Amino acid sequence: MEALIVLVLLVQTLIQYPHVVGDGLDEATRLRMEMREKYLNQEMTRLLQELEQSSLEPGVRAWGALLWATLEQWHFWALLGVLGLLLALAFSLRKRSREPHGSAPQENASSNLEAQEDQVNGRANVEENNAAGREERKYGANGDQEQDRDSKLGRFIEESIRWPVLDRGCVITDLIDDLTRAFGHHLSNRFYPVPQQAIGMGSAFEGWSPRKEDVVYRVLVPLSPPPGHTFHLEPNTAAGMPGKDFCVRVEQVHIPEEKLRRNKNSILLYNLCTRSYLDVEKTTLWFRLMARASWSRLPQSKHWRLRVLPSRRSCTLRLTNNRESFCVEVLFGVQQGNSDIYVSSQSREALFTPSTVWPETYGVAEMKFFSHIARQAPPDSCHLRCLQLLARAGGGRAFSNYTLKTIMMHLLNTIPMAQWGRRHCRQRLLESLDYLRCSLQKKRLDCFVIGNQSIPPQIDLPPHFQTLQPPNLFWHLAQDPDAHREARQDFSFLRYRLKQLFTAIDGEASSAPGAPIA
């Protein structure tokens, strides 16, 4: 009996407040709803008749008792609340569905008004953005739009890439100097190479970094011969490739025979040489062992944890404390006379380097060149920003970071520094691409240091360097057609990446700081 009453209430609710499919109904839907309403009315009439017949026997008292028992149940009140919410929702939907459907012109007019309002708001937003842009421009109320776009590109590069911590460079070189001085306790009265003052070189000391996160600080430790020995640099002609490789021949001068017998196990020729030539891998192992043994004597050991990483031709140190961590790559070198040119333990890119071969490096001279440029550059110079962007966008493929740096050094040596401001960033990037394109066509990219007649005089070079034919950094492209074809494809990729960046900057789609580049 109670279930029948509840069912009647639900059916009556559905009849009076039917659910609506949408705001606007077509004619077929309306007909179906009218037929459904008639059917539900008939069912309601039948149910009411059954209810009247069943209610004649119990009488009015039975109805009152049933109603009182129902009111005492909390389930009834919960059901009543839910039904109330459904009734309110059905009422609002039915009211919207019964609005006249012959008002399409009115709806169109309303849509047109809304579109006009959006246009007005859009123009207002554009005017507001333009006003804000005019306030930010530094070239006056009638400033050049092209200069503003280029300045915006420079700001984007400056905000969205991570720069190496230049102040850390002096700390690192001082740390390596302290470490090598601590070697003195172990090297006294022994015939081993003598480490000299460390020299920072590479991208981190030049003010830029090709890496997104982990910056590697590269340090060169020059080695001088121990007492009673000399180093002689002999060109290695077996490489069969452009670029100079040397072997460091170790020769003994006069050493007392008694001293030789007493220090036989500590003689350089016995421990660090292969066939009288200084061995890079043996020297690296020796330095690594000395670094581990001497670290505890340094005051820095109280604040930093040292981890010596395995490497064949360099000593890689990972320094960590509670706040930060960084990596130092220690290379070893022998100076050519009193110049800024060294032979180093650094290996040739993508080539196997024998352990007795020391390739010629121009890293110290190039670092001094960037220091010379920094003293002449305007405060908002974009040369490091352009170099870092090129390395992030195209480095690591056919074009090494050194290739892109060489192109930038050639441009810095020919374009006046007054034209390297932030507003010139776009033009300098385009000129870098054009320089790379021409070099690919010619299959030739000259080394910057050798054969350069206009290199700054602050860089100390051997006397014959400026008269030499510069090595071709693209010699492998002239020898391998497949490598040349791949390089041209990578150039197209690099140009596409930079074009995407220009489009994003022009459309202000990537103006938020921290947008990733590579």
Question: Which short descriptors sum up this protein?
Answer:
518 residues, alpha+beta, Beta Polymerase, domain 2, two-stranded antiparallel sheet, 18 helices, elongated, signal
Q: Shape from CA axes?
A: elongated
Percent helix, as a range, is 40-55%
- The CATH architecture name of the domain at 159-253 and 266-362 reads 2-Layer Sandwich
The helix/strand series, from N terminus to C terminus, equals HHHHHHHHEEHEEEHHEEHEEEEEHHHHHH
- Mean pLDDT rating: 75
User: Which class best fits the helix and strand makeup?
Assistant: alpha+beta
What is the distance, rounded to the nearest whole angstrom, between the alpha carbons of the first and last residues? 75 Å
Bin the strand percentage. Answer: 5-15%
How large, in whole angstroms, is the Cα Rg? 41 Å
State the helix count.
Answer: 18
Which stretches of 5+ consecutive residues score pLDDT under 50? Answer: 13-25, 54-63, 99-143, 509-518
Indicate the CATH topology of the domain at 159-253 and 266-362. Beta Polymerase, domain 2
- Count of distinct strands: 12
CATH top level of the domain at 159-253 and 266-362 is Alpha Beta
Largest sheet: 10 strands, mixed
Describe the protein:
Helices cover 52% and strands 12% of the residues. With 518 residues, it is α+β, with helices and mostly antiparallel strands. Strand 8 and strand 9 form a beta hairpin. The longest helix has 33 residues. It starts with a helix and ends in a 12-residue tail after the last helix. This is Inositol 1,4,5-trisphosphate receptor-interacting protein-like 1. Keywords: Signal. It comes from Pipra filicauda (Wire-tailed manakin).
